[in-house]
Amino acid sequence: MLDDPGLYGPRWPLPLRVRPVPGESTGSFVNRLAHANGLSLAAFLDRVGQGEASAYTERVEKYPQSTEMYMNEAGLRYLAVLADRAAGLLQQDLPSLGAEHLLPGEEAAQWWWRWEPVAGHLVRYCPLCGDDLGVGEAVWLMSTDSWQVCLRHGYWSDDSRGRGPDCVPLAELPETLTAHRVRQQLAEQWGPAGEELFADAFQVAVYWWTRMPDTARWVQRAWTAGLDAREMRAAPLVIYPEAAELARAMVDFERAGQRDTADRTRWLEDVEQLMSGWGVDVAEGRQALLVWLGRHRMGPPERDCPVDQRCLALALGHNRIASRTGSVSQHSCLTWQLGMAAADM
């Protein structure tokens, strides 16, 4: 049975149902539900409650990649009735309806549109996946990272907000698809440690790109993708392959557990050979590796590992900084951010 909307809420679902895509933004879902039933966004919202940004519904409807919808618990109950889907199921599929994002106020239904999401990024859902589901219009996801990769159809999408293509086909960039598979394999094999070491490697590559965006292979990848080589949105796509290869080297370092000066020097020399092969200036890029080694100087405490699980406990200096949740930058012990000036890193 659906949640009771209360005395003043809608009593019946809209005639046509729309199934949410897991991870979809609330604004994207509400737009699709309204359009499926021949309603403008403003007409639909009249049925959900009273909310902020109602004067801008035409802009909100036109730019779903730029804004996200939030509501209180009463608004969620109203939406559940209109969508013919239990509120709990909506919360499972639509991240911005999570309890931590619900607006205060328990009586009248309320909604609010933000031009910047509270958490995460609005990223286009793979259009071919949408076609397979019979969606019929663009779907926008709430993503922890500013990009997503569809391995099934070979698409890269990000939060570009209309600057260039929403989705980039990767048929001519197979190394980027391979890198994403490596990232998944590290997470599957080593759990959170694998995710965090990929994040460390990615942050090192961000440091390199910030200082050396004209590195030949990165420029060529950006051009192949139809992007400007110095455009910040190109950076995650073009550095992905090197980040994945560096992550493997970091896993090897942690697994070996040998952290004296000679061992660290040998590892650094091996990675510098990789950098040279990639065309990354070794002298310019070494500092980021030294910072990483400094935070992985002291090994983890001894602990038992379950017999059915491969454990990889990371260094103490890493664990003091890195988070187990959030975006790729938050998973890392390196606090640089894409978009920072080189001098600030």
Written overview of the protein:
This protein is mostly helical and 345 residues long. The chain has 2 domains: 1-169, no CATH class; 174-344, no CATH class. The protein is built from 13 helices and 8 strands. It has helices at residues 26-36, 41-45, 57-62, 73-83, 87-93, 127-132, 174-190, 192-211, 216-224, 234-256, 261-278, 282-295, 316-319; strands at residues 50-51, 68-71, 110-114, 121-124, 140-143, 147-150, 155-158, 167-169. The strands form 3 sheets. The protein has a 3-stranded mixed beta sheet. Helix 7 (174-190) runs antiparallel to helix 8 and helix 8 (192-211) packs antiparallel against helix 12 (282-295). The longest helix is centred in the C-terminal third of the chain and has 23 residues, at 234-256. The chain starts with 25 loop residues before the first helix and ends in a 26-residue tail after the last helix.
The strands making up the biggest β-sheet line up spatially as: 1-3-2
Strand content: 5-15%
The termini sit apart by 54 Å
Largest sheet: 3 strands, mixed
Overall average pLDDT: 88
Counting DSSP H or I runs of 4 or more residues, the number of helices is 13
Specify the overall morphology. elongated
Helicity level: 40-55%
Order of helices and strands: HHEHEHHEEHEEEEHHHHHHH
CA gyration radius, whole angstroms: 23 Å
